[in-house]
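Narrative of activities, Objective 1.

The group set out to show that a structural description can be obtained from nothing but a protein's sequence at a throughput compatible with the screening campaign. Below is one input-output pair from the validation batch, recorded exactly as produced.
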Amino acid sequence: MPKPIIEFNKIPITVLQGFLGSGKTTMLNYILTHNEGMNIGVVVNDFGDINIDSKLIKSQSDKQLELTSGCICCSLKTLDLQQAIDQFVFKGSNIDYIIIEASGLAEPRDLALTLRTTLGQKVRLDGIVTVIDAENIEKNAAKHDIARDQILFCDFVVINKVDLVKPDKIQDIRQMITSFNPRVRVLESTKGQIDIRLVLDQDLYKSRPLLTNDASIDHSGDHSNHLHEKYTSYSWTSPEPLHPMKFQDFVNCKLPTNVYRAKGIIDFGLKGHSRKYIFQLVGVRPELVWENWDQKPLTEIVFIGQDIDKSLIKKELEACIDESPDKQLESNIELKLPKKADL
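Output recorded for this entry:
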């Protein structure tokens, strides 16, 4: 059973957004019924948006809908966003994860800014996922700024309903997406069915294996025309410190877009003031925070994505190894230290 590289104390939040009719509620329902044993707190506009089978409903109140799967939904019809989040983060709560389903007309700029700057000390933003309708995204993006902004302000785009369009149109949609957001990570789905381990934080899988090499999505029912994507993970370790500027260049410019997530511990040696750096990448968004070492410095990173070229990543990372670890950064280079870890 693999040991997690990092343990976060805060409850992670994922946002599902998408234009009207994109299928985000269908995807949310799929996640709730394929939740890998997690207790998920869900924030929705109204309970009516969650069309879970009545057999799965354990109890209901004005503010919460409790499901037999261990998931609980809070409605923004009776609570504001902060109140809804507070329903899940009280002392003794057994919630593992929070999902916010944003309104199809919610302003993605404002939502992204709010979540990234004002979340409390007990929760953290993991990722923003935009669900798009493969049949109508080109029309929606041409007519509505919100549909374009939802692609621009996110970490992942899920092209939903791929079974309803021809493969060449999927390629056109991918080109349109990358014209708006060149580094965004793109997934495909039918009826909102995705491997939730890609859009929900990997640390939640402490008690179960991470993605195994070439593990594919398990779809129920007959989806013979659906593209069954395969996902892989790759771990890299180095006892030698990395050069911070080379690693930054690797993350910003050389990391392939088919790597959806990455996280680990980085040793920058003397150039990193002999501190431990905790690295996390969610879609297009890298984060780096520091802590003091509690053991011998060692760089350990795991990458998760689709059809990862392990040899390429290995080559790029080896190029990041510091050739002069006993020297400070050059005098004309300032390493802007990230904030201290508050996980």
